[in-house]
Structures are given as C-alpha cells and as structure tokens.
C-alpha cells in the first residue's frame, strides 16, 4: 500500500468546526507548554481570570469564560483541592464566591514563563498583525455568538 502524502488542513464550511479545530490545536500546544508546571491550559486560564477579576461568583466566572456550570465546577475542583483557589458560600448560600489564594498566585507566577513562551511561539508563527487580528476577531466572535 502506498503511503498517503501529508495534507494540510481541509477547508471546512462551518465556523464552529473551524473554531473547534483551531481551539484543539492551540490547546494541545499550551497544554504541552504548561505540563511541567502541573497545569492544563484551562486551569491556567482560570488562575489568570481570577487574578484579574478578584473575588467573583461562580456564575460570573462562567459568563466570563462562556462555560456551563457543570464544566466550570469540574475544572475548579482540582484547583481548590490543590489550594490554588478558595470557594466560599455567598450571602444567600446559593452563590459561590471564588478567589485566587496566595498559593494560586505562586502557581500562576511559576507557570507564566511557559505560557509566555507558548504565546510568543504562536504570535511569531502568525505574525504581529494576524495575531492582533485573531485576538480582536475571537473577542467579537465570542460576543456575537453569546447568549442573547
């Protein structure tokens, strides 16, 4: 049997399929870069968001990340078990407040150089103008596709 030549990505007519494919490829790169720090890209993102947002409700965190509460809860559990985040009951007990701990700040600082290297590599491969255009377009796309 003759081996098939390697082919590049096939153009897909669906925005969702293209975004998911790109997200999987990028996530694999970031996961590999963050693995030595003991984090996955999703966990690193949560630590970054909490560093910037401060104390937030779990619902607000889900809206920021455009993720459902079940997925968010599953992602938060190992971070809380590691002591990197703190989750407490809110005033009405139905709302959970989530915050980054000192240990979480240290973990984020430890992992940031690896994340920066992954960022730099992707930015360099895309080129500065495409990189900025990508970030801008993804933000607008998330907003356009959002609930409402």
Describe the model:
The chain is mainly α and 148 residues long. It has 6 helices and 3 strands; from the N terminus they run ααβααββαα. The chain has a 3-stranded antiparallel beta sheet with strand order 1-3-2. Strand 2 (85-89) and strand 3 (96-100) form a beta hairpin. Helix 1 crosses helix 5 (102-126). The radius of gyration is 18 Å and the shape is globular. The relative contact order is 0.11. The model has no long low-confidence stretch (mean pLDDT 92).
Keywords:
148 residues; mainly alpha; 3-stranded antiparallel beta sheet; 6 helices; globular
Order of helices and strands: HHEHHEEHH
Poorly predicted runs are none
The dominant shape is globular
Mean pLDDT: 92
Main sheet characteristics: 3 strands, antiparallel
Class derived from helix and strand content = mainly alpha
Radius of gyration: 18 Å
State the separation between the terminal residues, measured CA to CA. Answer: 53 Å
Instruction: List how many beta strands DSSP finds.
Output: 3
Strand content: 5-15%
Strand order of the largest sheet: 1-3-2
Overall helicity: 55-70%
Number of helices: 6
């Amino acid at each position: 049997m003759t081996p098939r030549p390697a082919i590049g990505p096939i153009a897909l007519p669906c925005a969702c399929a293209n975004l998911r494919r790109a997200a999987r490829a990028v996530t694999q790169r970031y996961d590999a870069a963050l693995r030595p720090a003991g984090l996955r890209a999703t966990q690193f993102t949560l630590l970054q968001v909490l560093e910037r947002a401060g104390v937030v409700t779990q619902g607000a965190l889900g809206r920021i990340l455009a993720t459902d509460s079940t997925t968010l809860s599953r992602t938060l559990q190992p971070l809380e078990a590691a002591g990197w985040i703190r989750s407490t009951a809110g005033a009405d007990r139905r709302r959970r407040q989530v915050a980054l701990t000192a240990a979480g700040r240290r973990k984020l600082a430890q992992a940031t150089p690896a994340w920066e290297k992954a960022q730099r590599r992707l930015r360099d491969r895309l080129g500065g103008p495409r990189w900025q255009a990508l970030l801008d377009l993804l933000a607008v796309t998330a907003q356009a596709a959002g609930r409402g």
